[in-house]
Amino acid sequence: MRIFALRSQPLTAALLGTLMCAAVQAQGKTGPEDFFDLPLEDLLSIEVSSVSRKNEALGDTAAATFVVTGDSIRQRGITTIAEALRGVPGVHVGRINASQWAISIRGFSGRYTNKLLVLVDGRSVYVPSFSGVYWDELDTLLDDVDRIEVIRGPGGTLWGPNAVNGVINIITRNAAETQGSLLVAGAGNQERAGGSIRYGAQLGDRTFGRIYAKYTEHEGFENLLTSRDTDENWDNARLGFRVDSEPSDRDTWTIQGDSYEIGGLQQEGLIRTSTFLNDFEAQGTNLLTRWTRTLDERESFSIQAYFDHIKREESFIKQRHNTFDLDFQHRRPLGSRQELLWGLSARHVRDDIKSNGQLTVLPGKRSVSHYGAFVQSELSLSDNARMIIGSKFDRNAFSGFEYQPNLRMIWQPTDRHTLWGSVARAVRTPSRAEEDGRFILTPPLNAIVGSRELEAEDLMTVEFGYRFTGSNGLSLDVTAYYNEYENLIGTELLLPPSRPPLLDLSFKNNLKGQSNGIEAALSWQVMSRWRLSGNYTYVDLDVEPADGGVSGTTFSGLQFGTAPHQLTIDSDLTLTDHWFLHVRGQYVDELPESNAPGADVPDILQPGSYTGLDTSLTWRRNESLEVLLSGKNLLGSRFEYLGETFTPASDIGRMVYLQLRMRWQ
Amino acid sequence: MMSPHDFASRIRRAGLILLLPLLTFGTAHATDSPQPESSLKAALVYKIMAYVTWPDTAFSPDDEDRFNVCGYGENPLEGALTSLATRQAAGRQIALYELNGEEPAAQHCHLLFVDDVEDVAQALELIRDQPTLTISDAEAFAHGGGMIEIRKKRNRFGFLINRNAALEADLMIAAPLLELSTVVGGDR
Question: Which are the contacts of B17, defined by CB distance < 8 A and separation ≥ 6?
Answer without folding.
Answer: none
